[in-house]
Description:
Mean pLDDT: 83
Shape: elongated
Oligomer: single chain
Number of strands: 2
Amino acid sequence: xxxxxxxxxxxxxxxxxxxxxxxxxxxxxxxxxxxxxxxxxxxxxxxxxxxxxxxxxxxxxxxxxxxxxxxxxxxxxxxxxxxxxxxxxxxxxxxxxxxxxxxxxxxxxxxxxxxxxxxxxxxxxxxxxxxxxxxxxxxxxxxxxxxxxxxxxxxxxxxxxxxxxxxxxxxxxxxxxxxxxxxxxxxxxxxxxxxxxxxxxxxxxxxxxxxxxxxxxxxxxxxxxxxxxxxxxxxxxxxxxxxxxxxxxxxxxxxxxxxxxxxxxxxxxxxxxxxxxxxxxxxxxxxxxxxxxxxxxxxxxxxxxxxxxxxxxxxxxxxxxxxxxxxxxxxxxxxxxxxxxxxxxxxxxxxxxxxxxxxxxxxxxxxxxxxxxxxxxxxxxxxxxxxxxxxxxxxxxxxxxxxxxxxxxxxxxxxxxxxxxxxxxxxxxxxxxxxxxxxxxxxxxxxxxxxxxxxxxxxxxxxxxxxxxxxxxxxxxxxxxxxxxxxxxxxxxxxxxxxxxxxxxxxxxxxxxxxxxxxxxxxxxxxxxxxxxxxxxxxxxxxxxxxxxxxxxxxxxxxxxxxxxxxxxxxxxxxxxxxxxxxxxxxxxxxxxxxxxxxxxxxxxxxxxxxxxxxxxxxxxxxxxxxx
Length: 628
């Protein structure tokens, strides 16, 4: 039955109205529940202590405080101010509608309180993460001789998990559950185990896990998520294999955690195995799974499989489109990302903020300035120009596309600058060789905006110093990063420092810096800038030493051999240069041709470098082919 049936029969007895209200509330149709109650009131039918708890539940679910207050007034007029069920529903409703004071007032004024009333008030406090107040009520219950129920403990455990309360709260609630014999309940055990996992106490969680006589898919997923989220993917898959041997039913939540693990590992074989299992269980049509699969395949470089997953999606949401566009951007295929975005615009689906930020990243990588300007126009047209994430993406795009002044204009308009937007502008100054502006902004960011820098910002600051030749400033900020902010240098920081010293000609100091680094940081990414500096400053002896290091680390990287050959060429050692290039051919390595990209009539065209240009015989006919 639906609402229109009631309109034509106003003489229905109360129990039929209650039946309609209960059915709509049970099905989650809370707006319809309130509409039925409104019609019922218009026809002069008065509610009962069965009606009002359902109506109050609907108000709480929809967060309608004003309507809930009106229903509260109806209960008073109808004489239900002392009814246990109605008063308990009022506690719950006001708690859901963010009026904690009203909830507590009703609770305190109740002449008789049931266990459900106590649970409702405790649950309300837990929803607000007020754990101390929850424990006070728990203690009062026990003083009055009321034993907490399973529902009581589940509410408090949930509150402890989300509030960051003291560890002794966790232990106390766990011990109380054991004392009352509730620790054997599967739901409570899962809740306590999840609480310990969120606290980082994996030993306590595992103790509960292995002592459980019965484990559900939630139990297994909780432990798997712990290992995967902390990067121990192998252990996560080991637990998953144990779960398979127990023949526990699988759900989409398990697969989301597994796909997250695959993203960290980045191996196509593992991704394919997980995908096959997803197909077998029939979870492949769920959108979160499809998004995870696309991300997995894209990170592994298998864009064909990612595109297949995208293509089989029957009802593609904007999230799925964004995942596929992001997959192309992540894999270094910005042109394909922009083409897919153009296809999206031909559908009825509208891009959201995440989509637009992803597309702007593609424009930045491709240097597609005109496309980026069109995206900015779309952002303004749809009233999203004040979105901080999009402002940051626009600044990055304009900087990468060579329009530093346009980026500055957007940056100046940002009213609530954060670390990301400042970092993006500093990086823009750095890549444009504007070291002074970058350092000034870095200082103003801390003094005027009160923003604390992180490791990423210090990387851009060191890069700015490197490109502008500010050796003293670079060394100063490298030490400040560690001394004042407690940030341990990463490979990126060391690479910037070596590049800074090498560009300035301090080759021996750059070499000493590398040799004094931790062993895990002495990778090709750090040695390569020094080899480039040896070429610039014509230091053959050191260049050969560095090249040997790089050959051992990356024996198949053609660029290292070419860089050494160019180093020989810079001092006129033509024979050694030719020998080095011959070595590339003897080892079967192939030098990829370099390409330059230009934006012509909203189309990004690629042009080859160097000798590749001989294939373009007639420049005039080539320009005509581009319709210039």
